[in-house]
Every structure is written in C-alpha cells, then in structure tokens.
Specification:
There is one protein chain. By secondary structure, this protein is α+β, with helices and mostly antiparallel strands. The protein folds into two domains: 183 residues, no CATH class; 103 residues, Histidine kinase-like ATPase, C-terminal domain (Heat Shock Protein 90), CATH 3.30.565. Helix content is 64%, strand content 7%. It contains twelve helices and five strands. It has a five-stranded mixed beta sheet. The two termini are 34 Å apart.
C-alpha cells in the first residue's frame, strides 16, 4: 500500500498538480495519493465489528472519516522536497509540513478511543508519506524509520493479542513501501533534472550556431557595405547614400535577430515577454497589434504561455518575412498571426517541437495553421495558437 504523493511521478507530486490548475484546493485534489486512504477500511471494519459501546464506535467512524479528509487536504496542498532551499536544516524542512502533521496527529488522537487505542497504528503510513515527501531523503528516512521502529517495538512489547501485532506489522510494511517509493521519486526527479540540463545545453548550442550563422553573416555584409560607402562618399555621394541606407536596414534586421536569439536565454515571464515582443517587432519594422494582458492569465499558466509567445515572436522575426502581426492573449490561450510567407512545405524546427512537447505534457494543444485566415497567395501568413 504505497502512499506516493502524485502517483508514480512523485517528482511533480501534489504541489505541481495543485499549482498547475487555478481554483480552491478542493478542485485540485491529488486523487492518486488520496486513493490510498481506501486502506483505512481495515480499521473501519474493526470498529464496526468490535464489541464495544456504540458511542465508541461513533467516535471511531467519525475519527477515520475526519482523518481521511485531513489527509486529503494535507497531501493535496503540501510543498514537496523539491521546493526546499539548498542546505535547509531539519527544522526548516519540517516547518512547511508541521501544521499538517499536527492536524493529522490531533485527529488520530481524538479517534483513538474508537480504535481501541491500539489500531491508531493504522495511520502510520500516512504520517510517513507526509514526512518523506516534504523533506530530503535522508531526513525523511531517519524520521520515518524511527516512527516505524518505535511503533513496532511498542506493539511487540505491549500488545495484548497476536492479531494486533500482525496488523501493526502490515501497516509498518506499508510504511516501508512508502520509503521505497520515495527512493523512486528522487531518482525520477534527478532524471528529469538531467533531462532539463541536457535540453538547456542543446538550446545553448543551437543559439551559438544561430549567432554565428545569422549575426556573423550580417556583420560581414555590413562591413563590406561600409567599406564600399567609404570609398564612394566623395566620388559618388548618391551611390554612397544608397549603400548607407542598406546598412541601416541590415543593422535593423541584425538587431531583431539578436533580440530574438538573446531572449531565448532568459527565464520566461509573460509580462516581460509581451514587452520584449513589442520591442522586437518595432525594431524589425513589423506593425504589431496586441490584445489581452498578462494579468488576465492565471499565474500557473503564464510561464508556458510566455514560452509560446517567445517562440511565436522568434519565428515571425526570423522566418516569416511579415509586415503585420497580431498577438492575442487570454486565459489559457495565446495566438500569434502574421502575414508572412507561411510554413507550407516546411518541417517544424526544434523550437516548435520542444514547445509542442511542453504544451502536450500539461494536456494542452499547439496548432499551426498556414495559410492563415484572410491570407493571400503572395502573403499566406501563419497562425500559431497554443491552448492550455
């Protein structure tokens, strides 16, 4: 009976689920973790069948239901160990979960009379789950191991009958399975971190190639044209003026390429990306119309929509050859439409492929349409739309 928060993907766990969807906590319950409260049916069966006063049975049933509700809230809202600052002490690790553990302990103590005292060990795996997934692996294992050891020693030394001992051993085994699950969650988190690092390294290499290919070419042409203009300035001022005008245009294009490339290195921020896109389009002499504001978008959606807007801006600046672009922003959606050359016959690049993977990973969709609605044969245009 593994009580792994967030299911097998504990690296994203209840916090990621909670933060990824707006609304009150009860609308973002971590059902994969809450499911394991079904094993509280075991002590519930004992309470119903036990030979004890009705008032005690009522206390036991209400206590078990109360613990189920408290655990559901705790596991659906608790922060994961991944959010801990580096080098956090034991107290700093336990502080975020202290209130939740205290609530669970209070409910467990209140229900003890209805569980004949002994069967409160049924709650042990749930306490271990909260501790293990809110603290570092070392801290969680030490505290959970001590809880299991003390519980088992107490049962072995003091339990009045063998049935209680065997039941306690079963719930202790469940706690050990939770500990093993924590090992798997840590390994999964490390793999994901390594994957992100590899992706970042690949992106840096791609950006390096972009800088070399795009900016290197532009600077070479600018240098040659500047030399030509210098030679012509006295002999043929009109031709020199023409060369200087082309230098200005090339400089603007190079500046737009630099902005589009450099912004890919920055951590996405939707409000900042809106301004960056506005500035980049203006520098490239592309008339841009924006609708919607970053504040209209729920906070959990902003980062991914910022990535989408960044990729859309980069594609318009580098590939579209557009003169007009429309940016639409709304809760759960961003739309970038241009009047450029379109993408018919072209395969999506690494940027769009990576963006699609990010979007689909959270259940969203990326749609690339070309020609765009209202496009012409000369300027078919493209629409990039991301919905979450």
């Amino acid at each position: 009976m593994a009580l792994l928060p967030g299911g097998s993907a504990a690296a994203t766990g209840p916090v990621a689920a909670a933060d990824g969807r707006p609304g009150p906590w009860y609308r973002r319950i971590d059902w994969s973790s809450t499911f394991w409260t079904v094993f509280l049916l075991i002590p519930l069966t004992f309470v119903i069948r036990a030979d004890m006063p009705l008032s005690y049975k009522v206390v036991g049933v209400i206590g078990l239901l109360g613990f189920t509700c408290a655990y559901t809230w705790a596991v659906s809202t608790m922060p994961l160990w991944l959010d801990l600052p580096e080098g956090a002490g034991v107290l700093d690790q336990l502080r975020p979960a202290a209130g939740r553990l205290a609530l669970l302990a209070g409910v467990a103590a209140a229900s003890a009379p209805g569980l004949n005292g002994w069967y409160t060990f049924s709650y042990l795996p749930y306490f271990c789950a909260i501790i293990l997934f809110t603290t570092t692996l070392r801290t969680g294992l030490i505290i959970s191991g001590c809880l299991i050891l003390l519980t088992d020693l107490g049962i072995l030394l003091l339990a009045p009958e063998a049935g209680i001992t065997w039941a306690a051993m079963g719930f202790s085994l469940s706690s050990v399975i939770v500990m093993i699950s924590r090992f798997g969650a840590g390994a999964s988190a490390r793999r994901e971190a390594e994957g992100r690092e590899l992706a970042a390294a690949a992106e840096r290499e791609e950006i390096g190639r972009d800088v070399h290919d795009l900016l290197g070419h532009s600077l070479t042409v600018l240098t040659l044209k500047a030399e030509v203009a210098h030679r012509l300035v006295r002999r043929d001022p009109e031709a020199a003026e023409h060369e200087l005008a082309e230098i200005v245009e090339l400089s603007r294009s190079a500046l737009a390429d630099v902005r589009a490339t450099v912004t890919r290195l920055r951590v996405p921020d939707l409000a900042g990306q809106l301004e960056a896109s506005r500035t980049a389009f203006a520098a490239a002499d592309i008339a841009a119309v924006f609708s919607g504001q970053a504040s209209d978008v729920p906070l959990p959606q902003r980062e991914l929509l910022a990535w989408a807007l960044r990729e859309g801006t980069t594609n318009v600046l580098r590939h579209a050859g557009a003169t007009h672009v429309r940016i639409g922003l709304a809760p759960g959606r961003v739309r970038v439409q241009d009047d450029g050359a379109g993408v018919a016959g072209h395969r999506p690049g690494n940027g769009l492929t990576g963006l699609r993977e990010r979007v689909e990973a959270v259940g969203g969709a990326l749609v690339l349409t070309s020609p765009a609605p209202g496009g012409t044969a000369a300027h078919p245009g493209t629409v990039l739309e991301v919905t979450l």
